[in-house]
Amino acid sequence: MSCEEPYRVLYTERRTPTIIELWLRPAAGALDYLPGEYVLLEDRDHAVPPRSYSIANAPRPDGLISLLVTSVPDGETSSWVHERLRVGEEVSISGPYGTFVDDPTSTTPCLFLTAGSGVAPVRALIEAALSAGADRSLTLIFSARTEADVIDRERFAGWQARHPQFRFIRTLTRAAGPPPRGRIPALLPMLYQDLGDPDVFIAGAPGFVLACATAADGLGAQRARVHTEVFFVEPQPWSGAAPHAEDRG
Ligand SMILES: Cc1cc2nc3c(=O)[nH]c(=O)nc-3n(C[C@H](O)[C@H](O)[C@H](O)COP(=O)(O)OP(=O)(O)OC[C@H]3O[C@@H](n4cnc5c(N)ncnc54)[C@H](O)[C@@H]3O)c2cc1C
User: Fold this and answer.
1) Is the shortest distance between the CB of 53 and ligand 1 below 6 Å?
2) How many domains are there within the chain?
3) Residues 81 and 120 in one domain
4) Ligand 1, atom 15: nearest CA belongs to which residue?
5) Inter-CA distances, 224 with 23, 51, 126, Å
6) pLDDT tens digits, residue range 64-106?
7) 196 and 119 together in one domain
8) pTM of the model
9) Kind of pairing, strands 199-204 and 110-115?
10) Beta carbon of 232 within 6 Å of any ligand 1 atom
11) For residue 19, how far is its CA from the centre of ligand 1 (angstroms)?
12) Whose CA is nearest to atom 10 of ligand 1?
């Protein structure tokens, strides 16, 4: 069941040149959510339009949630987060929403493909699986333009060191650096001959998700096992109308 709750900004951290992480503490009741779900964020005065943001952490006993917000030029809500929202302020969070969730009882290997703030729901899913003690193979391939855009490198390296079933691969698309380099759709056939087995989770911008899903399809991924979270551009203002098809990728 979805509901609306006030949360207070506990702290904010610039994670990459374009992404800010917000940690929010429930000011009243905490939303009950599943790893991979998203919420609508807006200011308490309703001065900015509510926008969808995936929760970037697995549920915690203290109810804290983290959001990774990419700066969008002239974007109303992302500019508010990046330029005006301050620690201690209250925001409104409603939800949770979405279908980008995992079956916690599954033993199927998982492949996560993501870029930018698309890592948010994936981080929540992997954190939940690892803390539940799952021993299924979990592989995260994260695409970034440059090394500076590789969010959470230390966290993922730490998970990899502690959990042999977790593998973290970053690929750079616009800078020199150690391999691998290049976009995920081009990289996948070099890493996998066949994707018939794993669950595949893909999250990020519409073009990214479409390109990765097409590449996974070409490698035999089972459609029912390909899960996508498309960060489509939302209608302005939210009217209940369906977003344009091209925005959905
Ligand atoms: C299910 C879901 C989950 C999402 N999760 C996240 C998340 O975890 N982190 C996150 O940062 N975003 C996420 N988004 C996207 C987010 O909801 C907003 O669309 C985004 O922050 C832009 O909102 P805005 O109000 O700042 O921009 P708007 O005021 O809506 O847009 C301003 C202008 O920028 C264009 N624009 C909007 N978004 C983009 C973009 N991404 N790239 C280029 N141009 C754009 C618009 O077409 C418009 O011209 C998610 C979207 C969905 C549907």
Assistant:
1) yes
2) 2
3) no
4) 231
5) 33, 28, 20
6) 999 999 999 999 999 999 999 999 999 999 999 999 999 988 9
7) yes
8) 0.93
9) parallel
10) yes
11) 12
12) 69
Q: Which amino acid is located at 48 in the chain? A: V
**242, two tokens:** 């369906």
pLDDT tens per residue, range 120-134: 999 999 999 999 998
100 lines ligand 1 (CB under 6 A): no
Q: Looking at the structure, do residues 72 and 171 belong to the same domain, yes or no? A: no
Q: How far is the CA of 235 from the centre of ligand 1 (A)?
A: 10
Give the whole-angstrom CA distance, residue 60 versus residue 80.
Answer: 26
Chain centre distance of CA 32: 18
**Ligand 1 centroid vs 162 CA: distance in angstroms?**
34
Considering the domain architecture, whether residues 216 and 128 belong to the same structural domain is answered as yes
Determine the Cα–Cα distance for residues 43 and 46; give it in Å rounded to an integer: 5
* Domain limits for position 185: 110-230
Number of Cα atoms under 13 Å in the Cβ half of residue 248: 5
Residue 92 shares a structural domain with residue 114: no
87 with 114, same domain? no
- Identify whether 74 is part of a domain: yes
Phi-psi region of 116 (alpha: psi -120 to 50; beta: other; left: phi over 0): left
Residue 118's pLDDT is: 98
For residue 49, the ligand 1 atom closest to its alpha carbon is 25
The answer as to whether 243 is a domain residue is no
Q: Looking at 71, 97, 123, which one is the last position of a domain?
A: 97
